[in-house]
Design goal:
- The chain is mainly α.
- The protein has one domain.
- Helices cover 62% and strands 0% of the residues.
- The longest helix is centred in the first third of the chain and has 29 residues.
- The chain starts with a helix and ends with a helix.
């Protein structure tokens, strides 16, 4: 019988493959949704020659590698971004499996939430609350990745993504309060959080300025709209806050915003890449906070 370490690795690799497949779908969503195209129909195809991509060429990461970054039919180059996004999401699912799911939630404030560890005890024999936390955090990373990709393409994040994230947070905070594991920390700052609704609401305050600008732009419909960069940046912060709660929302704003300010300052003459720098800092900050949530919170009194 294989050891628990081997079972953990196989399970994490499988979850990483699922993440890579989801990353492939996120590429489709980010490309089609701003253009008003269906994300379900039609199947993946080359945007140059319009030929459908063969199933064996559509394997995440490896498909791009064995095609050498070119369409099999017309020979036109395929952007490496597709493989990069698939790899990043696969890696995120893989790493988070070890850091959160197999550890019994040891990364969470107040964690671990169970004394059992490993894939066998928490996934193969389902620990549904812990699996729910893992899936919830992976979903947030997926939504943030869509915003990053849409931003790189020069569009504002579609309202459907915003509505989906907010609706998901409302449903989850109403039914599964364990998805907001750090409500007790609020009492140390004189804030009484009796339920996860309040935590989600306070979490959005971390990005309120950016969200107000976004709402103002939708209402005003000016001929010369503001840049999409601060709008998408605010929405990304808002989704992080409402889905993780007030503590993670403020930490993402603090660390992500600080990293962005430093990078922009160091590269002040390279404004053409500011889109990637600003919004990707929210994704990276959110991922880092999820991974090291407990030790980070422990740094504060």
């Amino acid at each position: 019988m294989p050891s628990n370490a081997i079972i953990d690795l196989i399970t994490a690799l499988w979850l990483g493959f699922i993440g890579a497949c989801i990353g492939s779908f996120l590429n489709v969503v980010a490309y089609r949704m701003p253009l008003g195209m269906s994300v379900i129909w039609k199947p993946s195809h080359c945007p140059k020659c319009n030929h459908a991509i063969r199933p064996y060429d559509n394997v995440p990461i490896f498909g791009w590698l064995w095609l050498k970054g070119k369409c099999r039919d017309c020979g036109e180059p395929i952007s490496p971004r597709y493989a990069i996004v698939e790899f990043v999401m696969g890696l995120a699912f893989f790493v988070l499996a070890y850091a959160e799911l197999f550890s019994g939630g040891a990364n969470l404030p107040g964690g671990p939430i169970t004394e059992f560890t490993g894939a066998v005890n928490n996934f193969l024999v389902p620990n549904w609350p812990l699996i729910g936390v893992y899936a919830y955090h992976c979903t947030l990373l997926c939504l943030l990745m869509i915003i990053v990709l849409v931003d790189i393409d020069g569009y504002r994040v579609p309202l459907k993504i915003v509505f989906f994230g907010v609706l998901l947070a409302v449903i989850c905070s109403s039914n599964w309060s364990y998805l907001y594991p750090h409500r007790d920390r609020a009492a140390k700052f004189g804030i009484a959080l009796s339920d996860s609704h309040a935590d989600a609401l306070l979490g959005i305050l971390a990005s309120l300025p950016g969200l107000l600008v976004y709402a103002f732009m939708l209402i005003s419909r000016k001929k010369q709209p503001f840049s999409h960069v601060p709008l998408n940046y605010g929405v990304a912060l808002g989704l992080t806050g409402i889905m993780l709660g007030h503590w993670a929302g403020w930490l993402t704003f603090l660390f992500g915003g600080s990293a962005t300010a430093i990078i922009v300052r160091l590269n002040k003459h390279r404004n053409e890449s500011s889109v990637l720098r600003m919004v990707s800092s929210v994704w990276l900050g959110t991922f880092g906070i999820i991974l090291f949530w407990r030790p980070i919170v422990g740094l504060f009194p």
